[in-house]
Amino acid sequence: MEHNKEQMMVAALENGSVIDHIPTDKLWTIAQLLNLDKCPEEVVIANNLESKVMTRKGLIKISGKFFSEEEISKLAVVCPNIRLTVIRNYEVTEKRQINLSDTIINIVKCANPVCITNNEPMKTYFNVKDLTTLKCRYCGKEQSLDSIKLK
Amino acid sequence: MENRSVVSIADYSKEKIQYLLDMATEFEARPNRRLLEGKVVATLFFEPSTRTRLSFETAANRLGARVIGFSDPKATSSSKGETLKDTIKMVSNYADVIVMRHYLEGAAQYASEVTNVPIINAGDGANLHPSQTMLDLYSIYKTQGTLYNLNIYMVGDLKYGRTVHSLLMSMRKYNPTFHFIAPKELEMPEEYKIYCKQNNINYIEQQDFTEDTIADADIIYMTRVQRERFSDLMEYERVKDAYILKADMLGKCRDNMKILHPLPRVNEIEYDVDESKHAYYFEQAQNGLYAREALICDVLGITLDDIKNDKNIK
Ligand SMILES: [Zn+2]
Predict the structure, then answer these.
(1) DSSP E strand stretches across chain B
(2) Are residues B229 and B296 in the same domain?
(3) Contact criterion met (CB < 8 Å) for B125 and A119
(4) E-strand spans in A1-151?
(5) Among all residues of B, which ones are annotated catalytic?
(6) pLDDT value at position B77?
(7) Is B28 domain-assigned?
(8) Is-contact B150 B137, C-beta < 8 A?
(9) A112 and chain B: CB distance < 8 Å anywhere?
């Protein structure tokens, strides 16, 4: 049943992107990150769907939307391991797992209030350590990936 | 041109450290030079630090450079909301090297990214202070004849003491044994103990500071125990006198042992220690001049050979 329902939701898209395997508690963060409240296109947001790989999941479908690499790396920071599907002319043209890159530029805010990045109009820059920790290039302070604030 | 800024020396190789120590040795033998004649050194102190500024400005002057800059950020347009980037860009039009002290962490790294003029970090908040570390290394090297296999005792505030953290990291390649002597509330932070473990650095933690516990030290590095660092003032009252070095504690110590302190001191080294042959903190401060002459020359591309072959010594 679940399979069919999902297929139906994805198949209905002519051109656009589907973000799948979103942890249920991250769905609204992602929606906010993508400014979906201001999106003029057709948007489907679903949560608590049954899933084979996770207990429950969220899914977002946006018509006419193709993500830039910058947007994708932003998504990866908020929730690693989501799946992105790109659809053109009703056909899946790309399906990929989104992974965290080694460096995260201008997406995350440094948690250190006396870091130069919080006091100067400039880009933030973090190195990713062991896929769990971000280290600020400027102040050297580390923060855990699951407690980050976006810029 | 590659950027030769000194933001941190934590990642310098042993060869590079030795090279700078050799430069400092040359400057100690002959501090007054004309190597920087015609050059302009800017000292930008966004946070006042008279001691560090005077040391850098003296270093620049003794090398024959001219010095511009400010010692009080209230006098500059950064207090009118000018960004650090704009200030650095503006000064880059005038100076050959910028010595910079800032209250924000990471400011020196950022400054080095927005200009081609080399930046020397003279302290960025609680983060780094490489010229202090360099003068500490030089003081240890000079008094012990080596940086290798030393027993280094760090005493007092090991939690907030930026200088002890930097020293700890820059000694990692020289097989030191550290003793961390501090009250519970100011003990060495976990991240530095992890750092020691990851780098196979031996360390021993203790709270007792007595004649017996310091008998095996080659270096005793004292720091200030400040009242405002304590959340529990009862605790401060209890420990404030436990980390004071007194002359009568030096009876059993090694002949070569030297006492270092980043200065200014408050009461953590009693004045009667000053007369001891182990007291080294004033010479240590003077070594800052030679270490800073070395750093300024290095960022300007003046080599050890240039300094050794300098025919123009005043
Ligand atoms: Zn930072």
Answers:
(1) 40-45, 66-70, 97-102, 119-124, 151-155, 177-181, 202-206, 219-222, 258-260
(2) no
(3) no
(4) 16-22, 43-50, 56-63, 83-88, 91-97, 103-105, 108-109, 125-129, 133-136, 142-144, 149-150
(5) 51-52, 80, 101, 129
(6) 66
(7) yes
(8) no
(9) yes
Positive or negative: CA dihedral B182, B278, B241, B210: positive
| CATH number for B116 | 3.40.50.1370
pLDDT on residue B228: 82
ipTM computed for the complex: 0.90
Question: pLDDT value at position B73?
Answer: 76
Among residues 121-140 of chain B, which lie with CB inside 8 Å of chain A? 124-128
Answer whether A145's CB lies under 8 Å from A127's CB.
Answer: no
DSSP track, B23-37: HHHHHHH-----TTT
Question: Could you tell me if A92 lies within 8 Å of chain B, comparing CB atoms?
Answer: no
Indicate if B194 and B209 belong to the same structural domain.
yes
Q: Which two tokens stand for residue B312?
A: 């123009």
Are A20 and A94 part of one and the same domain? yes
Q: What is the pTM of this model?
A: 0.88
pLDDT at B314 over 80: no
Interface test with B, best of A106, A114, A129 (most B CBs within 10 A): A114
- Classified as helix, coil or strand, A117 is helix
List Cα–Cα distances, B86 to A116, B13, B43, B185, B299, in angstroms.
14, 33, 16, 41, 22
Q: What is the pLDDT of residue A51?
A: 83
Q: B90-108 pLDDT, tens per residue?
A: 999 999 999 999 999 999 9
Phi, psi of A132 (to 5 degrees): -125, -20
> Is A113's Cβ below 8 Å from some Cβ in B?
no
Please identify every stretch of chain A with a pLDDT value under 70, giving residue numbers as ranges: 1-11
For residue B87, the chain A residue with the least C-alpha distance is: A120
Chain B residues touching A138 at Cβ < 8 A: 105-107, 109-110
Q: Is residue A114 part of a domain?
A: yes
CA–CA separation, B146 vs B150, rounded Å? 8
Q: Please name the residue that has the structure tokens 């780094």.
A: B128
Extended strands (E) in B135-222: 151-155, 177-181, 202-206, 219-222
Domain range for A39 is 16-98
Q: Amino acid letter at A51? A: S
Q: Do residues B269 and B259 make contact, with C-beta atoms less than 8 angstroms apart?
A: yes
Phi first, then psi: what are they for A30, rounded to 5°?
A: -65, -45
* Structural domain boundaries enclosing B59: 14-129+288-308
